[in-house]
Amino acid sequence: DIQMTQSPSTLSASVGDRVTITCRASQSISSWLAWYQQKPGKAPKLLMYKASSLESGVPSRFSGSGSGTEFTLTISSLQPDDFATFYCQQYHSYSPTFGQGTKVEIK
Amino acid sequence: QLQLQESGPGLVKPSETLSLSCTVSGGSISSSSNYWGWIRQPPGKGLESIGSMYYSGSTYYNPSLKSRVTISVDTSKNQFSLKLSSVTAADTAVYYCARHEGSSGGMVQYWGQGTLVTVSS
Question: Which residue of B has its CA nearest to A50?
Answer without folding.
Answer: B107
